[in-house]
Design brief:
With 341 residues, the protein is an alpha+beta fold. The chain folds into 2 domains: 160 residues, Nucleotidyltransferase, domain 5 (2-Layer Sandwich); 166 residues, Nucleotidyltransferase, domain 5 (2-Layer Sandwich), CATH 3.30.420.40. The protein is 40% helix and 27% strand. The longest helix is centred in the C-terminal third of the chain and has 24 residues. It binds adenosine-5'-triphosphate and magnesium ion. Adenosine-5'-triphosphate binds next to helix 6 and helix 7. The site of magnesium ion has 7 residues, from loops.
């Protein structure tokens, strides 16, 4: 234990969750050192990076013409290689302690559907930022390790990672992925559904940030509280073109979220149908573990429990279990070698 602590001071080994919504960096011996939105602001003329992370997210939808804010990973796919590389490099260099001359080993959790070319791009960016060895692992595997599921045992574990861009449903047994499917529905689609609902019902256009705030404050998948909850929202009236305020309630937001939530349920049902019977029996006993920011949507666990009749467990740290799992694998090279992409 003591030796490990001392070793941690010298090595900079890192684990990174390269998410659609958030990038989280863990450094061995130090814990989580960076947790910021995956957003980059760029000067359109020169292509120069102006801001990354929290600072760039504050500019979303508020930039003048010569600055562009980009979310380089959309729907779980890397839509802009160069900017993703820049962002990764920025986060690594920010936490990389250059005083130590040992170059870090880096484990990166990536969306499970990414192509070979995308994998190469992520690896190159990490290597050029000072990484000595770079390993890519699938996010659901990292999440399962992070939540402490016994993935090495011959027993089925189902994990559902509801991120910003995708929902990954995976069944893992004996350090391998038995089934995995990702759908392009997650927190972003929920925000979009709220925007569209308000546009249809009230002719009011709201921004992405406002939509996310509504989801966090008022959103739910199941009516838990009999009292009506409301919130004041602001946007632009599509008819008059003038900014307007109105009151929205929780029933309306639940109605807006019904479609993306239903799609998540269908993905889980499809996974259950495609799971070999022995493993399915394990899942009946152990239940389904939810992680990712979407797992925090109010009442989602209750809704899924009702629809599937299975135990539903929300991971202890839904937003950080991918990076914590990848971090644990820094210490467990045997398992790492089995799960690396
Ligand atoms: N309390 C909450 N209720 C509902 N949604 C939430 C809550 N907290 C965070 N979220 C949503 O979770 C999403 C971010 O989750 P997370 O950080 O797990 O995604 P990610 O790992 O970046 O994305 P992906 O795994 O798809 O690449 C955002 O859409 C955010 O709005
Ligand atoms: Mg994620």
């Amino acid at each position: 234990m003591f030796i490990n602590t001392i070793m941690g001071w010298f090595s900079n080994d890192m684990a990174i969750d390269l998410g659609t919504a958030n990038t989280v960096v863990f450094v061995k011996g130090r814990g989580i050192v960076c947790n910021e939105p995956s957003v980059v602001a760029i000067a359109t003329k020169t292509g120069k990076v102006i801001a990354v992370g929290t600072e760039a997210k504050r500019m979303l939808g508020r930039t003048p013409g010569d600055i562009q804010t980009i979310r380089p990973i959309k729907d779980g796919v890397i839509s802009n290689f160069d900017v993703t590389g820049e962002m990764l490099r920025h986060f690594i260099q920010r936490v990389h302690n250059r005083k130590t001359f040992i170059r870090p080993r880096i484990i990166i959790g990536v969306p499970s559907g990414i192509t070979q070319v995308e994998q190469r791009a992520v690896k190159d960016a990490a290597l050029s930022s000072g990484g000595r060895e770079v390993y890519l692992i699938e996010e659901p595997v990292a999440a399962a390790v992070g939540t402490g599921l016994p993935i090495s045992e011959p027993s089925g574990n189902m994990i559902v990672d509801i991120g910003g861009g995708t929902t990954d449903v995976a069944v893992i047994s004996m350090d391998g992925v038995v089934y995995s499917r990702a759908i392009r529905v997650g927190g972003d689609k929920m925000d979009e559904a709220i925007i569209n609902y308000i546009k249809r019902k009230y002719n009011l256009l709201i921004g992405e940030m406002m939509a996310e705030q509504i989801k966090l404050d008022l959103g739910s998948a199941y009516k838990l509280d009999a009292n009506r909850q409301t919130m004041e929202i602001k946007g632009r009236d599509l008819v008059s073109g003038i900014p307007k305020t109105l009151i929205l309630d929780d029933d309306e937001v639940r109605e807006a979220l019904a479609e993306p939530v239903g799609q998540i349920l269908n993905a889980i049902k499809a996974a259950l149908e495609n799971t070999p019977p022995e493993l399915a029996a394990d899942i009946v006993d152990k239940g389904i573990v939810l992680c990712g920011g979407g797992a925090l949507l109010k009442g989602l666990d209750v809704f899924l429990r009702e629809e599937t009749s299975l135990p539903i467990i929300i991971a202890e740290d839904p937003l950080t279990c991918v990076v914590l799992g990848a971090g644990k694998l820094l210490d467990d090279l045997d398992v790492l070698k089995k799960v690396v992409m």
